[in-house]
UniProtKB/TrEMBL annotation:
The keyword Cell membrane appears for this protein: no
Protein name: Extracellular solute-binding protein
UniProt-listed PROSITE patterns: PROKAR_LIPOPROTEIN, TAT
Organism: Caldilineaceae bacterium SB0661_bin_32
Entry's localization field: Cell envelope
Protein's UniProt keywords contain Transport: yes
Main location per the UniProt record: other
InterPro entries (alphabetical): Bact_solute-bd_prot1 (IPR050490), SBP (IPR006059), TAT_signal (IPR006311)
GO cellular component, one term: cell envelope
Keywords of this entry: Signal, Transport
Pfam family, one: SBP_bac_1
Length: 474
């Protein structure tokens, strides 16, 4: 008799390990799911019915004009998969409002979809509550070269440090870069940003590009940082050589230390004292309909940190060749930018529903299969997590829209492959940390009413709150 574990054995073992790691406060999923789960996702029965897989994602996911993510799956991806796996039927279930909370409730009730789109820190909460299938044993058997074929910026964030499980496969990775308007630079004779520019260069460039009217009022700011200060500014802390929290427990807040304070002060000084970097409220008060994709076309700022979702909007709103992309400015110690993945996770209940093998085959196909990963680029415009598909991403986008030919799209791939793009340093109890950090960051950056030194005390409070939460949970 062979001692080799079957895939079914591994799936049950993975679910069992995840369940053991569940917090006592979370109700576990019923052993066999309820009638809803059994009816919609049961294995093929004696009559030969196709095995159903419930697949939950977002209708809005695609950035490519004219593409609806649900239609793409139902008209292209699902039929393509059925050519190889005619024994299954995949049911599209769109995530609705409040999806992250509803999914967790459904997990505890045993009615969650089999496969779900998500991202950190939501997925980390699901993992710590013991509701996700550990994919690592399956990856080890079926994708043994995973560490080599996936972009580390996304793949590393699929591992949960607390529960020690592989939470998910990577859909795509969102990267923060600098988008800039060439006419704004040309107008004032300012050199375009170089790949190796520093935070000193960034500040000087922003000041040189800031315009005022005869009354001394600013009519265009030099730049704008990513307007999400809690998760968005972590990369400047790392660029100064600092840390958001410790790596071992994920509970010791380090934002009150010298390196972090220096990074935060650089941001505050350029945003409030010099005001060459636009404040969030100033951009919001500009009256433009879209402050995410519209700041460059409206000449509100000359450059802006933005996600890799701008391309088709900017191509529509600006003349071809009038805008480009560059790296985030390097700090005194490191060059860092945000690299945040979207992910597919598997509800642990599949181990008892009887469709576990089929669910894993589907997740493996969309996560490690080149056809689907290529279409993450072709159909959504997003940057795939599979390295070979990511290499083709710039070419795919230029095929979709020839106006992107002059744009240095390769910068974003380079940010991923050099290790510049990284995930945010999340706390073990991220929502608990944000209850303290959000008001503090708003006081510093939105209201301008507090110095960065308040973070010394706030950091201690965050640490205490993390430990208190852990203690309450037993």
């Amino acid at each position: 008799m062979s001692n080799r574990l079957t895939r079914r054995d591994m799936l049950r073992l993975s679910a069992g390990i995840a369940g053991t790691a569940a917090l006592a406060a979370c109700a576990p999923a019923p052993a066999g799911g309820d009638a809803m789960a059994g009816d919609s996702a049961a294995a093929s029965d004696a009559d030969g019915e196709r095995t159903q897989i419930r697949f939950a994602s977002f209708d809005w996911f695609a950035n490519v004009p004219g593409i609806q993510w649900a239609e793409y799956h139902q008209d292209e991806a699902f039929p393509r998969y059925y050519e190889e796996h005619p024994e299954v039927e995949i049911l599209w279930e769109p995530h609705g409002d409040g999806w992250s909370t509803k999914v967790l409730t459904n997990m505890a009730a045993g009615t969650a979809p089999d496969v779900m789109s998500t991202w950190p820190p939501i997925i980390n909460t699901w993992a710590e509550k013991g509701q996700l299938l550990d994919l690592q044993p399956l990856v080890d058997q079926d994708v043994p070269d995973a560490d080599d074929i996936f972009l580390a910026a996304g793949w590393d964030q699929c591992w949960d440090q607390i529960t020690q499980i592989r939470m998910a496969m990577v859909t795509n990775i969102d990267v923060t870069s600098v988008y800039y308007s060439k006419p704004a630079f040309d107008e004032l004779g300012v050199a375009y940003p170089e790949q190796d520019w520093s935070v000193d260069d960034c500040a000087a460039t922003a000041c040189a590009l800031t315009k005022k009217n005869d009354d001394g009022e600013i009519t265009r700011w030099g730049g704008q940082l990513r307007p999400s200060y809690v998760l968005g500014y972590f990369y400047y802390v790392e660029a100064w050589g600092g840390m958001v929290r410790d790596d071992e427990t994920l509970m010791e807040c380090m934002l009150g230390e010298e390196e972090a304070l220096a990074a935060f002060e650089w941001i505050r000084h350029n945003m409030w004292d010099l005001n060459c970097l636009a404040q969030r409220n100033q951009v919001n008060a500009s009256g433009i309909p879209n402050t995410w994709t519209g700041v460059l076309p409206a000449d509100i700022v000359a450059f802006a940190e933005r996600s890799a979702d701008q391309f088709f909007d900017l191509a529509d709103q600006m003349e071809e060749g009038s805008w480009d992309i560059n790296h985030i400015a390097a700090g005194p110690v490191d060059r860092v930018c945000m690299g945040a993945p979207d992910q597919w996770c598997v509800y642990k209940g599949v181990a008892d529903r009887g469709n576990h093998d089929d669910v894993w085959n589907w997740v493996k196909w969309i996560g490690a299969g080149e056809w689907y990963q290529d279409n993450v680029a072709r159909r959504s415009g997003r940057l795939p997590g599979l390295a070979s598909s990511a290499d083709k991403w710039p070419g795919f986008l230029r095929e979709i829209d020839g106006r992107l030919e002059p744009v240095q799209l390769e910068v974003i791939v380079d940010q991923l492959k050099t290790g510049e793009a990284r995930g945010p340093q999340l706390f073990r109890f991220q929502s608990v940390a944000e209850e303290l950090l959000v008001p503090a960051m708003e006081a510093i950056y939105v209201e301008g009413s507090e110095p960065v030194s308040i973070l010394v005390d706030i950091s201690q409070q965050v640490t205490e709150a993390q430990h208190a939460t852990l203690e309450r949970m037993g």
